[in-house]
Design a protein that fits this description.
The protein contains 14 helices and twelve strands. By secondary structure, it is of the alpha/beta class. It has a six-stranded mixed β-sheet, sandwiched between helices. A three-stranded mixed β-sheet has the order 3-9-8, with helices on both faces. Strand 6, helix 7 and strand 7 form a beta-alpha-beta unit. It is flat, with a radius of gyration of 23 Å.
Length: about 375
């Protein structure tokens, strides 16, 4: 699963990518520093794995991972090929969701591509380019569907949906704001529209805004805008996050405490991005390895078993399941079993986030 980090030039986008991945993407105070997208695969923070590692003392602990792509800065006219527009749009098309960094701080030493700080204008600059791109796609699909309608009436359903999407886009509103039916969602998925991709806004604040960032006037504007799109906002100071990312765990903990923060903003971003994609983790635990496995929410037990090995899915018999909370409460698998908290689940069982599982199979 891949998330694209986007934003106007000089909003802190590549600095945030560096902080998340420690990949060292070049960062400079001028537009188009990032030309080819930098890619980083990062572990998803999961306190449950830490607790299981203490319990089992395994040879290896493996986190779930998520992939971030740092995409070149965008300017007005991208949908018409301005700047690096065509590359920008093609790189977004390859991602599953968007993380948009928005500048919510004043700093005379950092040039803004439009000359002043206005987070809503910045968001709309990017969103309008994505909307223009989608309008072009929808119009082409409409032309084709209308031609096909003469031979087959089933295309009327697609035409009705496309017209609904087009009406929304022409109002300058992203298609993700539309409340689609389940049947419409299936059709929309095949259209590969940019504005239907889930989005998470990162409101980048200055260090002196940390104490009040949740209610900062500029951040509140971003939150109000995001509500219209059913999107979420995480305010953070990218500069501080970059410092935190270079520290050892103990030093990082001390700095967070000094700043009055429970966890780093980037940990929130990674967790929320994972959730944004409709993903969750089930866990396996033993002396060889404690591990988190990534699955889509709603996955049934046999398909989850297939994440470990196709043979386990093919020969699936049952799953022994205990919830993480129950295991922690009892202190050991033996104690949890004695209390009847270890369940036997069959092929129709829908996996829950944090399930600790042992699959039984025969091939």
């Amino acid at each position: 699963m891949k998330l694209g980090i986007v934003g106007l030039p000089n909003v802190g986008k590549s600095t945030m990518f560096n902080s998340i991945t420690k990949a060292g993407a070049e960062c400079a105070n001028y537009p188009f520093c990032t030309i080819e997208p930098n890619v980083g695969v990062v572990p998803v923070p999961d306190e449950r794995l830490d607790a299981l590692t203490k319990m089992y003392n395994p040879q290896k602990t493996t986190h779930a991972v998520i992939e971030f792509v740092d995409i070149a800065g965008l300017v007005k006219g991208a949908s018409k090929g301005e700047g690096l527009g065509n590359k920008f749009l093609s790189h977004i098309r390859e991602t599953d969701a968007i993380v948009e960094v928005v500048r919510c701080f004043e700093d005379g030493n950092v040039v803004h591509v439009d000359g002043s700080v206005d987070p809503i204008r910045d968001i709309e600059t990017i969103n309008l380019e994505l909307i223009f791109s989608d309008i072009e796609i929808v119009n082409k699909r409409l032309d084709k569907a209308r031609k096909n309608l003469k031979a087959d009436k089933k295309y009327q359903e697609e035409i009705d949906l496309l017209e609904k999407i087009l009406k929304t886009l022409e109002q300058g509103i992203s298609a993700r704001a539309i409340d689609f039916t389940d049947d419409e969602k299936i059709l929309v998925k095949d259209m590969f529209l940019l504005t239907t991709k889930p989005i998470l806004y990162i409101a980048n604040v200055a260090e002196n805004q940390l104490d009040t960032m949740e209610n900062d006037p500029l951040v509140m504007k971003v939150k109000e805008y995001a509500k219209k799109e059913n999107a979420e906002v995480i305010p953070l100071c990218v500069k501080i996050e970059e410092e935190l990312s270079g520290l050892e765990d103990e030093d990082k903990k001390e700095m967070l405490e000094a700043l009055g923060l429970e966890e780093s903003g980037l940990d929130k971003v990674i967790k929320k991005s994972y959730d944004l994609l409709g993903l969750m983790s089930f866990l396996t635990a033993g002396e060889p390895e404690v591990r988190a496995w990534t699955i889509k929410k709603g996955t049934k037990a046999p398909q989850a078993a297939g994440k470990i090995h196709s043979d386990i899915e093919r020969g699936f018999i049952k799953a022994e399941v205990v919830s993480f909370d129950d295991l922690m409460k009892e202190g050991s698998m033996v104690a949890a079993r004695e209390k009847g908290l270890v369940r036997q689940e069959g092929k129709e069982y829908v996996m829950q986030d944090g399930d600790i599982v042992l699959f039984k199979f025969n091939v």
